[in-house]
Amino acid sequence: MTFYNFLSSILSYVFTFIIYLFIFGVIRLIYLDVKKMSRFENNSVSGVETASLKTLHGKNQAETELKNRYMIYGEAVIGRSKTCDIVLREKYVSNQHVRIWFEKGEWYLEDLGSRNGTEVNGQRIRQRVMLDPQDEISIGGLRFVFEL
Amino acid sequence: MGKFKGLNYRRPAYLLMLMNMFGFGLLFVANSYNPNILYVGAGLLGLFILMYTIIVLCRMGDKFIMLMACMLITIGVLLLCRIKIDYGIRQIMWVAIGGAAFFTVYVVYYNIRFWNRMWFLYLALGTGLFLATLLFGKVVNGSKNWISLGGFSFQPAEITKILFIMFLACYYSGSWNKPFLRLKPKWVTMLGTYLFIGFLVLQRDWGTILVLFAIYIFMIYVYEKGYGFLAGNVGVAAIVALLGYKFLYHIQVRVSAWLDPWSDIADKGYQITQSLFAIASGGYFGRGLGNGSPNYIPEVHSDFIFAAVCEEMGVFGGAAIIILFFLIAYRCFKISITAQDPFDKAVCLGLTLMFAVQTFIIVGGVIKMIPLTGITLPFVSYGGTSIVVNFASLGIIQAISAKEERGTGGAGHESK
Amino acid sequence: MNPNKKIIRVLVVVCVMFLSLVTYLLYFNMFEAEEVATNPYNKRQWEDEKFVKRGTIYDRDGVVLAETEVSGDERIRKYPQGRLYSHVIGYCSKVYGKSQLEMKYDKELLGQGDIAISFNELRSGYDLTLTIDNDLQQYAYDQLNGREGAVVALEPTTGKVLAMVSYPDFDPSAESLEKNWNAIVEREDSPLLARATQGLYPPGSTYKIATAAAAYETGRITETFQDNGKFERDGLSVDNYGQAAYGEIDLKRAFEVSSNYAFCTLGYEMGPEKVLEEAERFGVGKEFGFDIPVEKSEIQYKKMTAQDAALVSIGQGQLLMTPLHVAMMGAAVANGGKMMQPYLVDTISTASGLTLSETKPAVLYDVMDAGCAEYLDTLMQGVVANGTGKSCQISGITVAGKTGTAENETDQDHAWFVGYAPAENPQIAVAVLLEYDGGAGGTNAGPIARNVIRKYLQK
Predict the structure, then answer these.
(1) What is the tally of structural domains in chain B?
(2) What is the ipTM of this complex?
(3) Fewer CB within 10 Å, N side or C side of chain A?
(4) C120 close to A (CB below 8 A)
């Protein structure tokens, strides 16, 4: 057995270890990814109502990059906190800013006591309001269009 | 918190780099400090970092598929370098070209919206390639499936696989419903499928036949309403396969070499038994990179590379490759399921099945679970056409995934 | 139409496909890989030998039995004793693989498991010292004198194999083997079969030792038998050898004259349960590890009847044993009822003479208590003194033994003898089998055993 053979046999265990660690890492990331989307999976199966917030890029001055569209499946809490369904990491967005949900055939919105407020079609809202398609919603200064 | 999360996110990528450095470092020692090994390793590492960074930065959709494909390529190039350095050097060039193809196809597929209307083009191009192969092709290992153009050879069958999938997707996405020559599109796709398979029979490319047919059968299963058409196709195929077994010597040899390779080790069973010797000698953890004798296996750089992996990296290494392919297939299935546009959905499903079936056929063949039919193991085997085409397929899947993630999937293809 | 549901089903199918690949791969590696890897066509097996000089095999006195000559890249395995050890040491051919000790001790002979890292130098494998006495082996071979069969000699107190000869044999040198392989394989008398360890034969009357032990344990040794020369019960009819009738006899006499009537009666009356139990005590149907491959002695009945028990009690029926096992049976009696684990390889040592491992004698089965062994000892001494084994008497030495003449599928009986000596302080136990000999064990097999014993004790 030469020195190289010896080294290589030892490293064969290292390789196996690295590959499986890699696979494990990928599976973990995929799992996290799926968990994030699991709400979608469940709702699409049970046929829960969906709506979306389309970002009005032209009118926003965001610090972070916003998605073109945020999907809402039945219910969504929007805010800066990681626990929210839709996370907006923006300066003027409160941890738990606003909630949008579907109830008895209608979509509703309520402000969760945010510091910088929520506006629907330019109106600052204080209590829950019913939403219509194409309503423009402003969350801490970020503008979206509510679409079904 | 954000920083920490980012680190986690990149961890598999770091492991891949670690694997690359360890592996090529070891081969560098094994090949008496041949610097070419290091160049190959560094080149591969560079290509991987470049591609992965572009995908992440440009938000090109799914990040995992390319990560796993890169792991497969790393293992493949390691083994190729170990078998013969020339293979490794050429493979890395193909990977570079493949990477370019990946991004080109990504951009082209992403921006063109009328793919679903060109079924005739796919059929005509595929047929043309097959005819060219029959006329100008050269015979390699008993299969006439290579075309040589000015010192540059390629396998048209690999390209026709993508054309075939696009062709099927045209009909099954529902965007093609006008009869052609009074034939319903359903029958045209069927005839097209059997036309392609017929050409492949003439080329004796049994592996690709199995891949195309499996894709077709799965497509029928997913998209046709009843099971009658499916049963009919499977039934006809079974009868044809039986007849083929009775009258075609090539098929008989393959089946008998599968059932009992040990009775004729020196001749018909040679390939498969050499492959099994390699796997059996590897054990669970392998004999170590550079310690084995993969060169005893015929065609070890292309069809039989899985046996070499098993010998030097062990059954666990082999299982890891299978798991990686499964994860790739899983991600692609997921993209196909979430894709909004029917054409994207069908194309993605077809390409996914192509990867999955091809892997199953060649790995199953090499370990003697099913009869052996020569076909490359995607991303791992040596082969220019194979690498470029597989990257191009990934490019399409990536584009579909990106459309979905950016929420532009709904726009989709033009429909009439 | 939403195809997603069906796509998920396709995903499940793909999942099953990949899972089956992994399962098959693991299955292959667990259950088939070893056999495949040692297939002689697997060229990998010879790679290690490039760097190693295969170890030498010695007899217990240091006589070389197998050694490797190195000339450049060539490795030639030489067997100075020629065919004598073809069934013990076996062969070592690049074309046909390895057998017997060359196979079982391949790793040791190649010095593997040794992390001495030497840089591409030629290294020596480990040497084996066997328990075999080369002179005795040669003598036993000569005594067999070309007759098909086997001779096994053991040291009863330790289980050391002193001699183990099987015939017909073959020239184990790789050159000859590769030239004559087809002829050897096709020969009807199967020279490749190591009869001593892998040949299964009905033990015939030698098995009456076990039946007598069962009789002792069930308290039947005072019984007498009315032997009219023929055992007849429930349609089963067994004659004594040569249709002899011995009249009224006790068990000791029945053992000496090898009365089938008496032992069939015993077996019939003790019943299948006791007969099977006794067989198991002697190790029939059980595997025991040995230094070379050994066939398991067997007793094969789906449901054993009393007639079957009667037949097994005289070593016929579905009972088959190897000559090695029959020798162990005799040695167990000689060793006060303890059957020792037999072994061939005494020590493993490096080329420089450092002993790496030494086999320690170990009890394999506690077959019977000392009283029973003593009783059997008197019976077996009687066989040689005034029974069927008179041909084994040696002046000045008390020999104990048992003859056997086993019926088989042909009309040529196997001749058996198993015995040991000196009875007071046994030093050697011998089993002799002459395959399809046609003669009686006492007259044909006995003298071979006697000569082997005498040769060993005179040393």
Answers:
(1) 1
(2) 0.91
(3) C
(4) yes
